[in-house]
Write a structure and sequence with these properties.
The structure is a homotetramer. Chain A has about 190 residues and is α/β, with parallel strands linked by helices. In chain A, about 35% of the residues lie in helices and about 15% in strands. Chain A contains 6 helices and 7 strands, in the order βαβαββαβαβαβα. In chain A, helix 4 links the parallel strand 5 and strand 6. The longest helix of chain A is centred in the last third of the chain and has 17 residues. Chain A starts with 5 loop residues before the first strand and ends in a 14-residue tail after the last helix. The C terminus of chain A is likely disordered. Chains in contact: A-B, A-C, A-D, B-C, B-D, C-D. Chains A and B meet through strand 4, helix 3 and helix 4 of A and strand 4, helix 3 and helix 4 of B.
Chain lengths: ~190, ~190, ~190, ~190
């Protein structure tokens, strides 16, 4: 695979984002940029903004995937914007568009995204020290099928390094079903 | 608006892409890159691949928005990939995610995208000389509401320049409704 | 196939619906109910409302598939309502959810739906006498792939009878690709 | 509101559905039918099939909302089928298309749907005695915003009665944001 890796950062939106989660997300974005990967978020504020801000600080590339039909408003650190217009159903698109995801803080929206990662067998790590869902979900499986455990990590660097390892393992033999491309193109 | 412009190129997929349409799409991608805008396509082959290839030749940024749930396969000129997983419904996302669109060649899929641009009042020009839908749709309105006429142009440079003019006009007073962002964030 | 047939009626929304198109759509809904099929529309007004009104007059079942996130507002003849929340991307869902479609009048939105039917190889007939897109699209193929021709018909009864014939032919050997169900369920 | 109520039953898909959850879901469907409401599910097997089977036993109406692009396969108790073609993003559509939801058993997919109900402020009760997510989620809020608590109930009848009460309360003053219908129609 020659394409650039894409790593999603999911977590607290503005209304529930603590200062600590914001600061940690910024560091996570920096670490993602340092390994040359693109930082993918929902394009909003809180943890999403912080991760993209960090990525830009290190010259990284950023992609924001919005729920709305219009490209504005979005946070000012998005290099590329996708306006899905499909509301919260876009959570699935964020996860489909990453090789792996990192949870920083987070509430119900983050839980929604994390369950999708589980269902689709997408590697996911939590920055446990950032609190919120990241802490709650550390080490758990969502059900008895045990598709994908949420791996706990303690620092932004560890989160990115650990996720990279998981992504490499996964590439070898993905259980992920995925929708198969059809023969006809339009 | 400080963000980078995003311009979509829509047109013939591989199975109906003529050599002429491919060559012209490549030039369109080059012109888009020259004005510093991001080239947005469906991430497939034919005109999509050509436009992104042209954009990369000039150091431009490219975004491919796929219908599938997985990021692969896609053409090799995508800097950023979005795997929507919503099938052909993703045509709407391509249009939502651009400031304006250029038609090069094209068949039924292109017509689908062009009607969406019309409905949402997104500026659209056709490279008439590329044939296919670009030729068929030049100068027409899709219905009596006359939301948006497809403007015909004769060269890649004219297509980009003309579209830029339309985008600037539109920014002043957009009739585009759009889904309004909601107060609560998640 | 033991399930009840589902037939979509697509056409003029309120702002462009002529009295003639409304009256014809009502008759189309009646004919659909008479053969025991469910009438599927976008749940709005104009032709959508008329077809469902006709279906209810004959004791038929009706399904409205809305673009919005909320179930209201919708026309008062919907027995079952689906609120997709994905905006105009829902056009594809309307077509996926029918065995065949009938065009009555119509503008740009109808054209969008008709191209989707073409791309997905879903049987489609136009009630030519209702004007608008129904007239414009009669007899055409959308591109050189010639997937599906829009068949012209002159009366509501002929439209339904002809469509039934096409649906039966199609069942025998569908070229329609479709997204394949995946092995794991969630 | 004169339209028929729509109640979603979410829970264990076939691979994790216990006999107890299946039996209880069947009773839930019966109770929904008895109050004249439509039973909405994802159209699959396990709890989805059971609830629809129960509803049909009591002469109720049923709606199945599939993730796939094709209307088949689905369980044999669906009166009306919607083939969304948007994969697991369809979970949001199931919730948008109900006035309230009942959890019976369930794993990760159910959790995904429950978080969506929370985010969108849709009334939701759990049949605690059915185990799985229904048990795990009883009484909890998903985050500190405390939008919607999952209410625990002990019998199918109590689940439906309690949900009805919540729906009536909600109708009076909905906090639910929803995407606003736009002025132009297509």
């Amino acid at each position: 695979m020659s394409r650039r890796l894409q790593i999603a950062v999911i977590g607290s939106s503005k209304s529930i984002c603590t200062k600590k989660a914001y600061r940690l997300a910024e560091k996570v974005g920096e670490e993602i940029a340092k390994i040359g990967a693109t930082t993918v978020t929902g394009g909003g504020h809180g943890v999403m903004e912080a991760a993209m801000k960090g990525a830009k600080k290190q010259g990284g590339l950023t992609l924001g995937i919005l729920p709305w039909e219009k490209m504005d408003p979005h946070n000012k650190y998005c290099d590329v914007i996708v306006a899905t217009g499909i509301g919260w159903s876009r959570d699935a698109i964020n996860l489909n568009s990453c090789d792996g995801a990192i949870i920083v803080g987070g509430g119900a929206g983050t839980l929604n995204e994390a369950t999708y990662a589980y269902i689709e067998d997408i590697p996911i790590v939590a920055l446990t020290t950032s609190g919120g869902m990241a802490k709650t979900l550390t080490g758990i499986y969502f059900d008895e099928r045990k598709t994908e455990r949420v791996i706990g990590t303690r620092t932004p660097r560890e989160a990115v390094t650990r996720l990279l390892g998981e992504i490499k393992k996964k590439k070898k033999k993905s259980k992920r079903p995925g929708i198969i491309q059809r023969k006809r193109d339009y």
